[in-house]
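Regression test case RT-17, inverse folding.

Input:
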């Protein structure tokens, strides 16, 4: 894979229309999640029910960009993709939501979606998108190579552009492009994509970058994502280095290297975090009704004896003593 930052060509999913290769791609129902993973990277979608009606994804390439229209019920998107090599491109994403209530968690901040207002974020950094109600939205994927390092540095947390006249212009262009997609040739769509990139530049220009313009080391980026994945999966007894590496899309050796630079191992970090969460849970007054066994199993321990030994070794007291002292 080169370092141009171009978006991959259209991806065909199981139930899909028979338009030419560079035309609109549509996935519905049970194909929605797999199509989203193919088009948007290593994202994991969680739906609270098995009801699959009402899900629809339409997507088309615009030269180096990709424009998609999504409709789905209540669900959560976990962004856990990692660039295993520093030159692996991943598109910057801009979302404009027309209906629904959603919150984007990234970089220690919560960004609340407002209808028809854009949010721009960097999916190479771990994030979670919580759609609390059914949603309809437009997503524009933009090649990283078209943004200066200063902008990419600011995207450690989402950018919410100030309201100006460019937002309705961009939104109207995105909507009309989706509506007229099959009547516009590939060359014209590439021109539309370039125009959208310029509009996005206009949305985020004029805000100085307060941080030095230096790239993040790949191992630091990996470590941040691994820690986010671990935090969301502490309850899994099978939370192993093998699982982490598979979900991050890299080798186990690369995961070990990320922790080694901080003088620890993935396993030590996982067990240490579990035991810290256990102590915090045992000391909370609103958790006193929970049994110690329940606390242990909820944090991925397979037996109460193992939990008690590990807890005492780390905290110098038994779980019961910890609860009594709270």
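Golden output:
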């Amino acid at each position: 894979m080169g370092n141009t930052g171009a978006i991959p060509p259209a991806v065909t999913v199981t139930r899909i229309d028979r338009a030419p290769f560079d035309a609109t791609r549509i996935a519905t129902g049970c194909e929605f999640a797999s199509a989203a993973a193919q088009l948007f990277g290593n994202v994991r979608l969680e739906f609270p029910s098995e009801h699959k009606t009402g899900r629809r994804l339409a997507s088309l390439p615009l030269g180096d960009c990709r424009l998609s229209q999504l409709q789905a019920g209540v669900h959560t998107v976990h962004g856990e993709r990692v660039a295993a090599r520093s030159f692996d491109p991943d598109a910057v994403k801009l979302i404009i939501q027309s209906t629904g209530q959603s919150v984007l968690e990234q970089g220690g901040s919560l960004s609340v979606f407002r209808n028809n207002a854009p949010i721009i974020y960097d999916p190479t950094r771990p994030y979670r998108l919580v759609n609390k109600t059914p949603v309809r939205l437009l997503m524009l994927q933009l090649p990283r190579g078209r943004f200066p390092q200063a902008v990419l540095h600011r995207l450690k947390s989402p950018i919410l552009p100030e309201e100006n006249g460019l937002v309705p212009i961009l939104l109207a262009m995105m909507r009309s492009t989706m509506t007229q997609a099959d009547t516009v040739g590939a060359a014209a769509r590439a021109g539309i994509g370039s125009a959208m990139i310029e509009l996005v530049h206009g949305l985020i220009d004029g805000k100085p970058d307060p941080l030095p313009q230096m790239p993040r080391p790949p191992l630091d980026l990996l470590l941040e994502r691994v820690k986010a994945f671990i935090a969301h999966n502490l309850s899994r007894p099978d939370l192993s280095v093998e699982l982490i590496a598979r979900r991050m899309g890299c080798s186990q050796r690369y995961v070990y290297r990320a922790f080694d630079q901080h003088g620890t191992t993935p396993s030590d970090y996982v067990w240490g975090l579990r035991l810290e969460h256990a102590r915090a849970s045992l000391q909370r007054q609103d958790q006193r009704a929970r049994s110690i066994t329940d606390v242990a199993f909820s944090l991925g321990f397979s037996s109460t004896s193992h939990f008690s030994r590990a807890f005492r070794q780390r905290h110098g007291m038994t779980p019961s003593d910890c609860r009594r002292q709270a």
